[in-house]
Amino acid sequence: xxxxxxxxxxxxxxxxxxxxxxxxxxxxxxxxxxxxxxxxxxxxxxxxxxxxxxxxxxxxxxxxxxxxxxxxxxxxxxxxxxxxxxxxxxxxxxxxxxxxxxxxxxxxxxxxxxxxxxxxxxxxxxxxxxxxxxxxxxxxxxxxxxxxxxxxxxxxxxxxxxxxxxxxxxxxxxxxxxxxxxxxxxxxxxxxxxxxxxxxxxxxxxxxxxxxxxxxxxxxxxxxxxxxxxxxxxxxxxxxxxxxxxxxxxxxxxxxxxxxxxxxxxxxxxxxxxxxxxxxxxxxxxxxxxxxxxxxxxxxxxxxxxxxxxxxxxxxxxxxxxxxxxxxxxxxxxxxxxxxxxxxxxxxxxxxxxxxxxxxxxxxxxxxxxxxxxxxxxxxxxxxxxxxxxxxxxxxxxxxxxxxxxxxxxxxxxxxxxxxxxxxxxxxxxxxxxxxxxxxxxxxxxxxxxxxxxxxxxxxxxxxxxxxxxxxxxxxxxxxxxxxxxxxxxxxxxxxxxxxxx
Amino acid sequence: xxxxxxxxxxxxxxxxxxxxxxxxxxxxxxxxxxxxxxxxxxxxxxxxxxxxxxxxxxxxxxxxxxxxxxxxxxxxxxxxxxxxxxxxxxxxxxxxxxxxxxxxxxxxxxxxxxxxxxxxxxxxxxxxxxxxxxxxxxxxxxxxxxxxxxxxxxxxxxxxxxxxxxxxxxxxxxxxxxxxxxxxxxxxxxxxxxxxxxxxxxxxxxxxxxxxxxxxxxxxxxxxxxxx
Lengths: 502, 228
Prior knowledge:
The complex is a heterodimer. By secondary structure, chain A is of the alpha+beta class.
């Protein structure tokens, strides 16, 4: 081995030009690969951080009847199955040593109704207990107009992104109740038509729940306009509404409904079957009802436990370091034991395409690295093969005096390995240094799509041991791949070459 | 005892659709310890004969035994092993490893044999002294004259204590004085190390050093003997 490495090292020094060319390729490749790993890890971590800490937690419990795990950004019109037995889920989560905090929520789509517009607009509704939501996702958005709803208040929070979208549909600029127009927050188009700008402090929405025709159109008072700290273009689609109003909008049982006492007469009405039901629809006249405004909480509903009503999902934050696989397995077992008709899925499955973003970004980098190294491998293979052929006489002589083929192959592998270790190692170190230095430059963006790529508002690539190990592994693969063909060519040189070139 | 036994050795080279016979049925026996020269004009087949004896090239037909072992049916690994352990080579153009110095070049075959480094170095130093290169042991081939390089090649050929040393026109690239000194050295090593030397030449001046001369012409051995 010592002899082999000695010859390899001295050959590198002897052919400085070629060695520098190969070294430069290896350095550049290793540098870009390490930096790329850092950028992708930063992006992936940023997305994870923003989604987990700011929007949906680590694990989401959904109805067992829910066909797709994707409950966040599903296709329009696809409703999320209701979770009707949160009462069973809650104690199971409370008993789990893996769970740090959770938030039950309603999530579905609603149609925006406006008498002056032909085409309806759409919005995602997230029905929550506002106080619990703040505890679950503290600081994920700022209220830029109006205020955060008081506990138990029926209200709607519209993200600035959604407000811009609504303006595009209806030319209506939504303001919080009692709020004033903030010109700095106006869309450019709205600012240009300030004189004719229509302002409104309430939104009429009708829940869209597949398979149900019992949804109501509800007028929601706008309590505030919010802006998410990151990924506003994605999270900004979701209007936050109190859970009881959400349930009413979607035609779900509210907590108040669940706690209501059913009278004998009502029970008799509910038990009507067949022809008896027709008597309920005897009249031909239809009376148009005005959209119901969300009721202020009555004493009865105030007394009701919100947990009694229907949800669509339960967002769960796990304790630090709990592996997802273990958490999903144990939570599903706990849900089953509790008799809940629900299942737990990881956030990236529940987030649908956004959850796949990290995988997509990693795949993109993988392809980039693959292309980069394919080029590198081709150049190195070419250079080393030329070197092998130029040294045919010397290699032939080594074979003639008794060197076996593996020795000759090993000599070339040794040369490539030394070059990889020196130049590739330097490239990896430079990449690590760059990853450490880039955050100091504080490259920031307010662009939402760039924020998605940055994983936040500041470009912050990061490298962990895994990332460095991955770079070393990739470099090793390149080394072996680059050396294979030249090794074969060199080992194929016969002792006759020593004579033939005499 | 014969160290080399060749019977009806044939070697053909395909040249497009034509087959060119280089050796057309060579019979030859070389006794242990001989200092023999194969002579003949260019293209007579002497290099081909040395290559087949040295396991560098394969015979088309016939039998070649080295130290009693038939070599014509062996695979690459086995013939490489024979080259390492039983045969030493001296090439026309010296063929040293340019990145190794004199001592490293000499000990190279021993290290291939996985001999201990210290033992290899001691043996290499002894042979470097015997070929008169003690002062140049740290020189690389590029820093040596042609004659000095060929001395290194001789030392390297002898370092493993082979049964045979094969030298293909060892003096062709040297001036006459240096060539003579190399032949003197080879003959001296033949006597000291008791190693069989077979070398080819087409230089008549070289013949006086050989104890046995074999003439080859058109791929066939001419009638022996030609006493030196």
